[in-house]
Specification:
Layout (H helix, E strand, L loop, with lengths): L10 E11 L3 E3 L5 E10 L3 E8 L9 E7 L9 E4 L2 H4 L7 E3 L12 H11 L4 H6 L4 E4 L3 E8 L25 E8 L10 E4 L3 H7 L6 H5 L1 H4 L7 E9 L7 E10 L1
Parallel strand pairs: 4-6
Antiparallel strand pairs: 1-3, 1-5, 2-3, 3-4, 5-6, 5-7, 8-12, 9-10, 10-11, 12-13
The chain binds zinc ion.
Zinc ion binds next to helix 3.
Length: about 260
Amino acid sequence: MTESGRKEDPFWLKNMIVLGHGAPNRINSLGGRQGRCLCLWSEDRGYCRVYPVPYGFVHDWEVVDFHVRLPKNDGRENSFTLNNYETNWDKMWECIVVHKDKNNKRVKLSRDACIKLTHKLAIDTFSNVRDNARSFGIINPTKLTFFLRKNGESSTQQTTLVELDHTIMDQNDFKWLPYIQYECPQGCISAHPHTSKIVEWGCYQFMRKHPDDEEYCKKLGDNLHISDDSYEKYLLIGNIKNYPKTYIIVKVIRFKK
Ligand SMILES: [Zn+2]
Protein backbone atom coordinates (compact mmCIF):
# COMPACT_ATOMS: atom_id res chain seq x y z
CA MET A 1 0.00 0.00 0.00
CA THR A 2 1.00 3.61 0.00
CA GLU A 3 2.39 3.86 3.50
CA SER A 4 5.61 1.97 2.84
CA GLY A 5 8.80 3.86 3.58
CA ARG A 6 9.32 6.32 6.38
CA LYS A 7 6.49 7.27 8.66
CA GLU A 8 6.66 10.92 7.65
CA ASP A 9 6.58 10.24 3.90
CA PRO A 10 3.50 11.53 2.07
CA PHE A 11 1.06 9.02 0.63
CA TRP A 12 -2.36 8.89 -1.02
CA LEU A 13 -5.53 8.24 0.95
CA LYS A 14 -7.71 6.74 -1.76
CA ASN A 15 -11.44 6.41 -2.36
CA MET A 16 -12.46 8.46 0.66
CA ILE A 17 -16.12 9.39 1.03
CA VAL A 18 -16.67 12.90 2.45
CA LEU A 19 -19.03 12.60 5.44
CA GLY A 20 -18.78 16.12 6.81
CA HIS A 21 -16.98 19.47 7.03
CA GLY A 22 -16.24 21.39 10.16
CA ALA A 23 -16.53 25.15 10.12
CA PRO A 24 -13.27 26.80 8.99
CA ASN A 25 -10.35 27.64 11.24
CA ARG A 26 -7.65 30.24 10.86
CA ILE A 27 -4.29 28.81 9.85
CA ASN A 28 -1.80 31.01 11.65
CA SER A 29 1.17 29.67 9.69
CA LEU A 30 -0.55 30.84 6.50
CA GLY A 31 -1.22 34.36 7.67
CA GLY A 32 -4.75 33.64 8.81
CA ARG A 33 -6.03 31.98 5.66
CA GLN A 34 -8.88 29.58 6.21
CA GLY A 35 -8.96 25.84 6.13
CA ARG A 36 -11.42 23.29 7.33
CA CYS A 37 -11.28 19.83 8.64
CA LEU A 38 -12.94 16.98 6.78
CA CYS A 39 -14.41 13.78 8.14
CA LEU A 40 -13.83 10.99 5.63
CA TRP A 41 -14.56 7.30 5.51
CA SER A 42 -13.60 4.37 3.29
CA GLU A 43 -14.12 0.65 3.47
CA ASP A 44 -10.34 0.08 3.71
CA ARG A 45 -9.46 2.86 6.11
CA GLY A 46 -12.52 3.53 8.20
CA TYR A 47 -12.82 7.09 9.52
CA CYS A 48 -10.05 9.58 8.71
CA ARG A 49 -9.55 13.27 9.34
CA VAL A 50 -7.83 15.49 6.75
CA TYR A 51 -7.01 19.18 7.22
CA PRO A 52 -6.57 21.98 6.41
CA VAL A 53 -8.67 21.86 3.25
CA PRO A 54 -9.36 25.09 1.33
CA TYR A 55 -12.93 26.17 0.64
CA GLY A 56 -14.79 24.85 -2.37
CA PHE A 57 -12.79 21.76 -3.27
CA VAL A 58 -15.08 18.99 -2.09
CA HIS A 59 -18.70 18.43 -1.09
CA ASP A 60 -20.33 15.94 1.23
CA TRP A 61 -20.75 12.41 -0.13
CA GLU A 62 -18.23 12.88 -2.94
CA VAL A 63 -15.45 10.34 -3.44
CA VAL A 64 -11.97 11.84 -3.26
CA ASP A 65 -8.26 10.95 -3.11
CA PHE A 66 -6.03 13.05 -0.85
CA HIS A 67 -2.24 13.38 -0.82
CA VAL A 68 -1.40 13.57 2.86
CA ARG A 69 1.18 13.10 5.56
CA LEU A 70 1.08 12.66 9.30
CA PRO A 71 0.66 15.93 11.21
CA LYS A 72 3.37 17.12 13.56
CA ASN A 73 1.39 17.82 16.71
CA ASP A 74 -1.80 15.87 16.55
CA GLY A 75 -2.23 12.68 18.50
CA ARG A 76 -5.74 11.99 17.29
CA GLU A 77 -6.48 8.73 15.53
CA ASN A 78 -6.22 8.61 11.70
CA SER A 79 -5.55 12.33 11.35
CA PHE A 80 -3.59 13.70 8.42
CA THR A 81 -2.65 17.03 6.87
CA LEU A 82 -2.57 17.79 3.17
CA ASN A 83 1.00 17.35 1.99
CA ASN A 84 3.05 20.58 1.85
CA TYR A 85 0.05 22.80 2.57
CA GLU A 86 2.40 25.25 4.31
CA THR A 87 4.33 25.99 1.11
CA ASN A 88 1.93 24.92 -1.62
CA TRP A 89 -1.45 26.30 -0.46
CA ASP A 90 -2.32 27.78 -3.86
CA LYS A 91 -1.89 24.42 -5.54
CA MET A 92 -3.87 22.18 -3.26
CA TRP A 93 -5.67 20.72 -6.26
CA GLU A 94 -2.49 18.66 -6.59
CA CYS A 95 -3.41 16.98 -3.30
CA ILE A 96 -7.20 16.78 -3.68
CA VAL A 97 -8.48 14.66 -6.55
CA VAL A 98 -12.25 14.30 -6.78
CA HIS A 99 -13.32 11.16 -8.62
CA LYS A 100 -15.11 11.77 -11.91
CA ASP A 101 -17.21 9.49 -14.08
CA LYS A 102 -16.79 8.91 -17.79
CA ASN A 103 -18.79 12.07 -18.53
CA ASN A 104 -16.40 14.07 -16.37
CA LYS A 105 -19.08 14.51 -13.71
CA ARG A 106 -18.02 14.50 -10.07
CA VAL A 107 -18.80 11.19 -8.40
CA LYS A 108 -21.21 11.51 -5.49
CA LEU A 109 -23.03 8.77 -3.62
CA SER A 110 -26.70 8.37 -4.52
CA ARG A 111 -29.29 9.13 -1.85
CA ASP A 112 -29.84 5.40 -1.35
CA ALA A 113 -26.12 4.78 -0.99
CA CYS A 114 -25.82 7.64 1.53
CA ILE A 115 -28.64 6.19 3.63
CA LYS A 116 -27.24 2.67 3.43
CA LEU A 117 -23.77 3.81 4.49
CA THR A 118 -25.17 5.92 7.34
CA HIS A 119 -27.22 2.98 8.64
CA LYS A 120 -24.13 0.78 8.50
CA LEU A 121 -22.01 3.29 10.45
CA ALA A 122 -24.57 4.57 12.94
CA ILE A 123 -23.83 1.90 15.55
CA ASP A 124 -21.81 3.96 18.03
CA THR A 125 -22.40 5.32 21.49
CA PHE A 126 -20.60 8.31 22.93
CA SER A 127 -18.69 6.25 25.50
CA ASN A 128 -17.58 3.69 22.97
CA VAL A 129 -16.16 6.40 20.70
CA ARG A 130 -14.49 8.31 23.54
CA ASP A 131 -13.11 5.32 25.44
CA ASN A 132 -11.51 3.92 22.32
CA ALA A 133 -10.02 7.36 21.55
CA ARG A 134 -11.63 7.36 18.15
CA SER A 135 -11.63 10.45 15.97
CA PHE A 136 -15.22 10.05 14.81
CA GLY A 137 -18.39 8.11 15.34
CA ILE A 138 -22.02 8.21 14.24
CA ILE A 139 -24.76 7.99 16.83
CA ASN A 140 -28.40 7.23 16.22
CA PRO A 141 -29.80 9.26 19.12
CA THR A 142 -32.88 8.23 21.05
CA LYS A 143 -33.56 11.78 22.23
CA LEU A 144 -32.56 14.98 20.54
CA THR A 145 -33.02 18.62 21.56
CA PHE A 146 -31.70 21.75 19.91
CA PHE A 147 -30.87 24.92 21.82
CA LEU A 148 -28.81 28.08 21.58
CA ARG A 149 -26.27 29.03 24.16
CA LYS A 150 -25.08 32.57 24.57
CA ASN A 151 -21.53 32.84 23.33
CA GLY A 152 -19.01 33.03 26.13
CA GLU A 153 -20.91 30.83 28.59
CA SER A 154 -18.77 27.83 27.79
CA SER A 155 -15.14 28.00 26.76
CA THR A 156 -14.34 24.30 26.73
CA GLN A 157 -15.17 23.79 23.09
CA GLN A 158 -13.29 26.63 21.46
CA THR A 159 -13.47 26.60 17.73
CA THR A 160 -12.79 29.52 15.49
CA LEU A 161 -15.32 29.97 12.77
CA VAL A 162 -14.32 32.06 9.88
CA GLU A 163 -14.29 32.88 6.20
CA LEU A 164 -17.84 32.77 5.08
CA ASP A 165 -17.69 34.21 1.60
CA HIS A 166 -14.29 35.67 2.34
CA THR A 167 -15.60 37.80 5.16
CA ILE A 168 -13.61 37.00 8.22
CA MET A 169 -16.07 36.09 10.91
CA ASP A 170 -14.83 34.81 14.19
CA GLN A 171 -16.83 32.74 16.65
CA ASN A 172 -16.91 35.85 18.81
CA ASP A 173 -19.00 37.53 16.14
CA PHE A 174 -21.81 35.07 16.81
CA LYS A 175 -23.84 36.01 19.83
CA TRP A 176 -25.54 32.60 19.85
CA LEU A 177 -24.01 29.21 19.29
CA PRO A 178 -25.97 26.06 18.38
CA TYR A 179 -25.96 23.05 20.69
CA ILE A 180 -27.61 19.67 20.76
CA GLN A 181 -28.51 17.63 23.78
CA TYR A 182 -28.91 13.93 23.05
CA GLU A 183 -29.06 10.45 24.45
CA CYS A 184 -27.40 7.42 22.89
CA PRO A 185 -28.96 4.03 22.35
CA GLN A 186 -28.29 1.37 24.99
CA GLY A 187 -24.73 0.53 25.92
CA CYS A 188 -23.39 4.00 26.65
CA ILE A 189 -21.67 4.08 30.05
CA SER A 190 -21.28 7.86 30.10
CA ALA A 191 -23.80 10.03 31.95
CA HIS A 192 -26.79 11.14 29.90
CA PRO A 193 -27.75 13.40 28.30
CA HIS A 194 -24.75 14.58 26.30
CA THR A 195 -24.42 18.20 25.28
CA SER A 196 -22.31 19.13 22.28
CA LYS A 197 -21.78 22.16 20.12
CA ILE A 198 -22.61 21.87 16.43
CA VAL A 199 -19.80 22.99 14.12
CA GLU A 200 -21.51 22.06 10.85
CA TRP A 201 -20.58 24.83 8.48
CA GLY A 202 -24.03 25.30 7.01
CA CYS A 203 -25.36 26.25 10.47
CA TYR A 204 -23.03 29.25 10.63
CA GLN A 205 -23.82 30.24 7.07
CA PHE A 206 -27.44 30.39 8.15
CA MET A 207 -26.87 32.29 11.41
CA ARG A 208 -24.51 34.71 9.78
CA LYS A 209 -27.41 36.58 8.17
CA HIS A 210 -28.62 37.75 11.61
CA PRO A 211 -26.03 36.55 14.10
CA ASP A 212 -27.38 38.63 17.01
CA ASP A 213 -31.04 37.75 16.54
CA GLU A 214 -31.97 34.93 18.91
CA GLU A 215 -35.38 34.28 17.35
CA TYR A 216 -33.82 34.03 13.92
CA CYS A 217 -30.97 31.76 15.05
CA LYS A 218 -33.46 29.48 16.82
CA LYS A 219 -34.92 28.63 13.42
CA LEU A 220 -31.79 26.61 12.85
CA GLY A 221 -33.44 23.82 14.85
CA ASP A 222 -36.21 23.71 12.24
CA ASN A 223 -33.71 23.75 9.41
CA LEU A 224 -32.03 20.73 10.94
CA HIS A 225 -35.49 19.08 11.35
CA ILE A 226 -34.62 18.27 14.96
CA SER A 227 -38.26 17.90 16.06
CA ASP A 228 -39.57 16.67 12.73
CA ASP A 229 -40.42 12.97 12.89
CA SER A 230 -40.56 12.71 9.12
CA TYR A 231 -36.74 12.93 9.11
CA GLU A 232 -34.17 10.37 10.23
CA LYS A 233 -31.37 12.10 12.16
CA TYR A 234 -27.87 10.90 13.03
CA LEU A 235 -25.03 12.71 14.79
CA LEU A 236 -21.55 12.62 13.32
CA ILE A 237 -19.29 13.43 16.28
CA GLY A 238 -15.56 14.21 16.21
CA ASN A 239 -12.98 15.15 18.82
CA ILE A 240 -11.01 18.39 19.02
CA LYS A 241 -7.26 18.68 18.94
CA ASN A 242 -6.49 20.24 22.29
CA TYR A 243 -9.15 18.31 24.20
CA PRO A 244 -9.30 14.91 22.49
CA LYS A 245 -11.89 13.61 24.95
CA THR A 246 -14.24 16.44 24.00
CA TYR A 247 -16.49 15.77 21.03
CA ILE A 248 -18.37 18.21 18.88
CA ILE A 249 -21.07 17.55 16.32
CA VAL A 250 -19.52 17.80 12.89
CA LYS A 251 -22.83 17.22 11.16
CA VAL A 252 -26.44 16.36 11.80
CA ILE A 253 -26.92 13.79 9.05
CA ARG A 254 -30.58 13.85 8.02
CA PHE A 255 -32.80 12.14 5.51
CA LYS A 256 -36.47 12.63 4.71
CA LYS A 257 -38.22 9.35 5.45
ZN1 LIG B 1 -24.37 8.26 25.62
